[in-house]
Every structure is written in structure tokens, then in C-alpha cells.
């Protein structure tokens, strides 16, 4: 009983500290921020970072790695193997969330608050199983410059509903109630305005009850209660649109993970090499998909494109580098 109470107290204190940090403006923000949550897939994180470090502008950004509680220690080895390619980074260890259903949500939501506090203006979320294109950051910044008052922009194909994108490969289209945490860009002001009041024990402990009470008129089903479901409801109530790309600037490669059965065996190096032969191959990913919907959601896209979506920049695959 004492241990339970102590864990709950520590987590509440961590959440309160994240909110206080987000709302405190010390005027020292000099870089935009990339938030990278990670847990137990260091081989996936390796490929995520391999692509992030190829993306234009990464050297100008600050990367916050959020290692969730119980993370694989190989994540740290992977991060440090790419350190020379990152202009600025830090590793934050997430507090232990005592609520099983919302552990991943806690890491991402608290991470968003710390990222918003540190960011000059833009906060990017790139989870460890998201592979980004070379112009990923440039596309997000361009669409925000072209369209004011966005809730956020998302760099993947919209997997919530079919959409007819514009013909211009550098273009975008707008949607509502379609938030997902796959390659996102927020203006920090949106996060600071919308999130702090909901990073609360009442949400983490009983998310369905909390969302039913605070978003009673939402069209989002109560099956979606984790952080993406919360943020989708915030977007729905804000009426600020989401921008999706005509040509995807990222794709979701996580065919196994926390909520999906399966894993790769072998050493870290062997797993990295095996992933290289799977996640960039449409046929291989389709063969691994459990459903047709998942096959569409995780279809690899061209990552070596310019901002117009036409000109190959460099070869995608690279040899394994030991960590």
C-alpha cells in the first residue's frame, strides 16, 4: 500500500512539474524541438534516427528522447551512436506511470509539455517507428507558413479516412478529427493552450470516465482513450484544421510493438539489418500486416524525395553501423 501511494505521489509530482515547466517562459528558447519517445525497440529506433539524421535541418533542432519506464538500455547506445549527427539533444527518463492503460500516453503528453517549454516555435513528434523523408521538416514548416491557425500538420498518409489529395506533390489538404501521433508538427502555442489542463490524474487514472465527462458531445468513440484520442478530441473542439500532405513525408513502420504482438530475435545488429530488408519493402510489409487496413497504414513511401516530390536525393539503404 505504501509503495502504491508513493508511486502515485511521484507521478503526480512529475506531471505537476511538467505543467509548471511548460507554463514558465524563461526566454531561452533558441531551437525548435523534435520529441522522440522510445521504449523496447532499439532496432526500430536505429532506423528512425538514421532517417531523422538524413532529414534537412536536423542539425538546427534540439531532439528530446523520452525513454519510457522499463525501456531497453540498448536505446541509449543507439542514441549515442548518432550523437555526432545531432546538433543538440537530451535524454529524459519518463516517470513510472502507475496506471497501466495510460503509460504510453503519460510519456508522450508530459514529453509534449517539456518540448513546448523548450521550443522556439515548432514541436515535432516522431515516434520510434516513424520513418521520415528528407524534406520532412521543410514540408511541415512550409505548410504552416502557407496556412495560418493550424491545429497541427501530420506527415503521413491519412489513415483515418480516404482522401483525394491535391495534384501538387508539395501541397496539402485539411481535415478534422483525424489526429494521429505519426510524424506531427505543432506550433508550441497550441500545445500550451490545449494540453496542460488535461494532463491530470483524473485523466490518467480513469481515461474513459474523464473523456466522457469533459468531451460529452465528441464524435470520437470511447474506444480511443489514449493520448491520440485525447488530442483528437481537443482538435475536434478547437475547430482548428489539421494539414495532411498530398505526398506523404513519413510512414509508420511499427508492425510489432507495445500494442502489437511480435518481435525480432537476434543481436541488436542482426535486428537492425533484418528491419532494413522489411520496412522499406512494400511487399514485405504487406505480408506482415494482420489486416488490409494495417497494410494501407504501414505502406512504405519514398523518403528520398525533394520538396516537390520528384527528384531522388540519395540512396535510402545504408550499411549497419555498430553501436
Cα(first) to Cα(last) distance is 41 Å
Count the E strands: 10
Order of helices and strands: HEHEHEHEEHEEEHHHHEEHHH
Rounded to an integer in angstroms, the radius of gyration calculated over CA atoms is 19 Å
Share in β-strands: 5-15%
Helix residue percentage: 25-40%
What structural class do you assign from the helix and strand content? alpha/beta
* The CATH architecture: Alpha-Beta Complex
Q: Are there runs of 5+ residues with pLDDT below 50, and where?
A: 306-323
Going by CATH, the homologous superfamily would be Spore Coat Polysaccharide Biosynthesis Protein SpsA, Chain A
Order of strands in the sheet with most strands: 3-2-1-4-8-6-9-7
Largest sheet: 8 strands, mixed
Shape: globular
- For this structure, the CATH topology is Spore Coat Polysaccharide Biosynthesis Protein SpsA, Chain A
Number of helices: 12
Domain tally: 1
What would the average pLDDT be, to the nearest integer? 89
The CATH top-level class label: Alpha Beta
Amino acid at each position: 500500500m505504501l509503495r502504491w501511494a508513493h508511486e502515485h505521489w511521484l507521478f503526480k509530482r512529475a506531471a505537476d512539474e511538467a505543467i509548471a515547466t511548460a507554463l514558465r517562459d524563461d526566454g531561452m528558447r533558441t531551437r525548435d524541438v523534435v520529441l522522440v519517445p522510445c521504449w523496447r525497440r532499439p532496432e526500430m529506433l536505429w532506423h528512425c534516427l538514421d532517417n531523422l539524421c538524413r532529414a534537412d535541418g536536423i542539425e538546427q533542432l534540439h531532439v528530446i528522447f523520452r525513454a519510457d519506464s522499463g525501456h531497453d538500455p540498448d536505446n541509449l547506445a543507439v542514441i549515442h551512436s548518432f550523437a555526432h549527427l545531432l546538433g543538440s539533444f537530451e535524454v529524459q527518463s519518463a516517470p513510472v506511470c502507475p496506471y497501466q492503460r495510460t503509460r504510453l500516453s503519460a510519456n508522450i503528453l508530459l514529453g509534449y509539455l517539456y518540448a513546448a517549454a523548450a521550443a522556439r516555435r515548432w514541436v515535432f513528434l516522431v515516434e520510434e517507428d516513424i520513418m521520415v523523408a528528407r524534406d520532412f521538416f521543410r514540408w511541415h514548416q512550409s505548410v504552416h507558413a502557407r496556412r495560418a491557425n493550424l491545429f497541427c500538420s501530420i506527415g503521413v498518409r491519412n489513415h483515418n479516412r480516404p482522401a483525394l489529395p491535391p495534384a501538387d506533390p508539395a501541397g496539402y489538404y485539411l481535415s478534422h478529427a483525424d489526429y494521429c501521433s505519426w510524424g506531427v508538427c505543432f506550433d508550441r502555442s497550441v500545445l500550451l493552450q490545449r494540453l496542460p489542463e488535461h494532463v491530470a490524474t483524473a485523466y490518467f487514472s480513469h481515461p474513459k470516465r474523464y473523456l466522457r465527462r469533459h468531451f460529452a458531445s465528441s464524435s470520437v468513440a470511447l474506444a480511443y482513450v489514449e493520448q491520440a484520442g485525447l488530442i483528437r478530441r481537443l482538435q475536434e473542439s478547437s475547430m482548428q484544421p489539421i494539414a495532411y500532405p498530398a505526398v506523404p513525408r513519413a510512414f509508420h513502420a511499427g508492425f510489432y510493438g507495445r500494442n502489437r504482438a511480435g518481435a525480432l530475435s537476434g543481436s541488436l545488429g542482426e535486428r537492425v539489418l533484418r528491419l532494413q530488408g522489411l520496412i522499406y519493402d512494400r511487399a514485405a510489409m504487406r505480408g506482415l500486416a494482420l489486416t488490409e487496413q494495417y497494410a494501407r497504414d504501414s505502406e512504405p513511401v519514398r523518403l528520398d524525395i525533394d520538396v516537390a516530390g520528384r527528384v531522388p536525393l540519395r540512396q535510402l539503404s545504408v550499411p549497419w553501423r555498430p553501436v
